[in-house]
From TrEMBL:
Pfam families: DUF5110 (PF17137), Gal_mutarotas_2 (PF13802), Glyco_hydro_31_2nd (PF01055), Glyco_hydro_31_3rd (PF21365)
Span of domain Glycoside hydrolase family 31 TIM barrel: 369-497
Naturally occurring in which organism (per UniProt): Rhizoclosmatium globosum
Domain of life, source organism: Eukaryota
UniProt GO BP: carbohydrate metabolic process
Residue ranges annotated for the Glycosyl hydrolase family 31 C-terminal domain, each copy included: 506-595
GO molecular function: carbohydrate binding; hydrolase activity, hydrolyzing O-glycosyl compounds
Keyword check for Hydrolase: yes
Annotated family: Belongs to the glycosyl hydrolase 31 family.
Domain DUF5110 per the UniProt entry, residue ranges: 613-684
Keywords: Glycosidase, Hydrolase, Signal
Domain Glycoside hydrolase family 31 N-terminal: 51-210
Record protein name field: Uncharacterized protein
Length: 737
């Protein structure tokens, strides 16, 4: 019996590992063409591989067990780009390898090792991507093994709570309701290397990516018996993100109200607060924002299990009269979208884990159904919040980090979470201000200071001992929260331009420093995990402990100013014990910045065509800088058919002269003004200002010791103008100590 049992176990093991025998030498290499795509079919004794040259910087490798078929993942498809232009491809063989070449500006060539079968990509600079062993396929899982350099860094994996860089770590690529530090609320089967490549595994199967060893290969595994990977080649992480989001879908462009403060609670059958009435309770909250002079863009009126709603059209009308957009949460399938979107004016959807919590293809499908429902029954853009996202979700939803408790630690781990998610093309991410449970007045203020610089921002009430609207704790907290919400609102013209950049290129509007400073090794590491860039010009260093100083702030190359007082700092240094009083977020702006802004408004709907555009500029002597302001109607989908505009602003400066050029507005959209006035705020160094007299070709005043306000009267938007400031040294000036 024992011998029989042993033989049975051996037979079972042999059967289960039959497909795990490493691929031997190539037995057949054949050029094929499908739908205009150049492909090579490569056979070994154990596998069949299809290598596709899709574009100058994009490859696809599909491997199945010998005799298997090349199939796509189940619907919905993660991949949205299905057609490619035909490329001229050639191959040359030697005894040891096959070299595949095609026209591309970086000189990439594929080197295929014959025995055993392995793939590498090389450029004139060296090895970009190299398998260290053949792909390993078993009935349960498929693994790829890649060589890597000692200095090579890895980013991506979707939303990995508490992390943005993955050197020396192993990350999970899976649906999970672990939403605290270390959790994966919105994983994605994608990563990229600063060696010049990224890999997207075209699958809904969970997996792991192991970057732990310096001396062993990177091992990426998914729990399925097929390998399907798109490989993106580029000199920059931005270029890789461009390729990845071209294949899986560009981040959607939110409507402007989606970039404003959002608020959610249950205003009917509230399990934690008792019975309410949708219209009257929603009215009280909406009026609360108005009475407290706080910006708000949208309200969810039914966010809670079993909540429901009543008087939806009447509630929507009340909100509309207050310039607030209606939103609904759902824990079930969306079965009443025509009524809710048309009569109920629903323009925001939040999808609960109770519905889409199984993740993967089900969650992606739910996201697309919700997004499309808004667009099918209105002229607005879809605007959806979801959790348990995957590759492709960036095209249809904000991906929030799940439900947490308000705490200092919650603030801490969200900083690398949100910045790091952008390194997977997840442009729109956030977490609830001060969590949904517990929290305090102090953690609320510090979290709000941070999250007004997050891609999107919202609060959720109904679960903590206190409601989470930004005025609930009274003074001084209310005034501090108001200050930061108003700052975000004023910066939306600047930020919306980066939102458009994400829509066109996949590069996120909130950025880890490595995206802008990839050649600075400090930006690769956890030394900068608790700071990020808002656009390219603001550096944000949130306070995440109960303190009034902030240490470990790294300023990369260039000159930086303290946004609040104009103090000047040189880059390539770490600031320790930086003053951070409770009402002050450490915030820096880079020299050379051009920042278009609105005035004091609490909604984008309050901006009038006759309003001046405020432009803050920070001249840098010896430098030329520019900013191209993107604009459209802010709500509808007409930007997809080319209805938008750009306006270029250019600045050059010397020690004695500043030239600021206001370019014409190029393009058209509904609501575009015919003329526009400008208030140019010139920020300069205090000592320099004190030692110079200012002469300008437009009316100007000294607004502060370091700010010159130049007023440019309304100009037709089809014309340009140049503001010139000449600086003359004051005679016999002596700087006072």
């Amino acid at each position: 019996m024992k011998l029989t049992a042993c033989l049975s176990v051996v037979a079972s093991l042999l059967a289960s590992t039959a497909l795990a025998v490493p691929a031997g030498p190539i037995t057949k290499f054949q050029f094929v063409e499908s739908a205009g795509v150049a492909q090579f079919r490569i056979s070994t004794d154990t596998t069949e591989t299809l290598l596709s040259i899709l574009a100058d910087n994009t490859l696809r490798v599909q491997t199945v067990p010998a005799g298997g078929e090349f199939v796509e993942p189940t619907k919905p498809s993660i991949v949205v780009k299905k057609s490619w232009e035909k490329l001229a491809v050639e191959s040359k063989q030697s005894d040891k390898d096959i070299v595949v070449s095609w026209a591309n500006e970086n000189g990439y060539k594929i080197h295929i090792n014959k025995a055993p079968f392995k793939i590498a990509v090389k450029s004139p600079k060296g090895i970009v991507y190299e398998e260290s062993a053949p792909i390993d396929i078993t009935p349960e899982k498929t693994s790829q093994f890649l060589s890597h350099g000692v200095e090579e860094q890895f980013f991506g994996g979707g939303m990995q709570n508490g992390r943005f860089t993955h050197k020396f770590t192993k990350i999970r690529i899976e649906r999970s309701e672990d939403w605290d530090d270390g959790g994966t609320p919105n994983a994605a089967p994608f990563y990229m290397s600063n060696n010049g490549y990224g890999v997207f595994r075209n699958t809904f199967a969970p997996g792991t990516y192991d970057f732990t060893s310096t001396h062993q290969p990177v091992v990426t595994t998914h729990n399925e018996s097929r390998f399907d990977a798109y490989i993106f080649l580029a000199d920059s992480l931005k270029g890789i993100l461009n390729g990845y989001t071209l294949v899986t879908g560009r981040p959607f462009l939110p409507p402007m109200y989606g970039l404003e403060m959002g608020d959610s609670d249950c205003y009917l059958h509230n399990a934690n607060r008792g019975e309410r009435r949708t219209l009257s309770w929603t009215t009280d909250v909406a009026n609360g924002y108005i009475e407290n002079d706080m910006p708000v863009g949208w309200l969810l009126v039914n966010d809670g299990y079993g909540c429901g709603y009543e008087d939806l059209p009447e509630t929507a009308q009340m909100l509309s009269e207050r310039d607030i957009t209606m939103g609904l949460w759902t824990e079930f399938d969306l079965t009443n979208q025509p009524y809710e979107v048309q009569e109920g004016q629903v323009r925001v959807r939040k999808l609960d884990v109770a519905w889409i919590g199984s993740g993967y293809e089900f969650a992606l499908n739910g996201c697309e159904v919700a997004y499309q429902g808004i667009e099918d029954y209105s002229d607005a853009r879809g605007f959806v919040w979801t959790v348990e996202g995957w590759a492709g979700t960036q095209r249809c939803a904000v991906q929030w980090s799940g439900d947490q408790k308000g705490s200092w630690d919650n603030i801490r781990f969200h900083i690398p979470t949100l910045a790091g998610s952008g390194l997977s093309g997840q442009a729109w991410t956030s977490g609830d201000i001060d969590g949904i449970w517990t929290g305090s007045a102090e953690t609320y203020v510090r979290d709000l200071q941070f999250k007004v610089f997050a891609p999107v921002v919202m609060s959720m009430s109904g679960w903590a001992p206190y409601d989470k609207q930004p005025w609930r704790h009274g003074e001084p907290y209310t005034s501090i929260n108001r200050k930061y919400l108003k700052l975000r609102e004023s910066l939306l013209p600047y930020f919306y331009t980066y939102a458009a950049e994400a829509y066109f290129t996949g590069v996120p509007p909130v950025r880890s420093l490595v995206l802008e400073y990839p050649n600075d090794p400090i930006t690769w590491t956890n030394a900068v995990q608790h700071q990020f860039l808002f656009g390219t010009q603001f550096l944000v260093a949130p306070v995440f402990t109960d303190t009034t100083v902030r240490s470990g702030i790294y300023l990369p190359e260039g000159t930086w100013y303290n946004y609040w007082n104009g103090d000047k700092y040189h880059g390539n240094q770490v600031l320790n014990n930086f003053p951070a009083p409770f009402d002050t977020l450490p915030l820096f702006i880079k020299s050379g910045s051009i920042i278009p802004m609105w005035g004091n408004v609490n909604s984008f709907k309050h901006v009038k065509k006759t309003d001046d555009l405020i432009v803050d500029i920070y001249p840098a002597a010896g430098e030329t800088s520019e900013f191209s302001l993107y604009e459209d109607d802010m709500v509808t989908r007409k930007h997809r058919t080319g209805e938008f505009s750009y306006q270029n602003f250019t600045m050059t400066a010397t020690e004695t002269k500043i030239q600021f050029t206001i370019g014409e507005v190029v393009g058209h959209y509904d609501g575009k003004p015919d003329a526009r006035g400008y208030r140019i705020k010139v920020h300069a160094d205090l000592a320099w200002m004190a030692s110079h007299e200012v002469h300008c070709n437009f009316e100007h005043t000294l607004e502060k010791d370091t700010v010159i306000l130049v007023r440019v009267p309304r100009l037709p938007v089809g014309t340009s103008a140049q503001v010139v400031l000449n600086m003359r040294p004051r005679a016999n000036f002596v700087m006072q100590e």
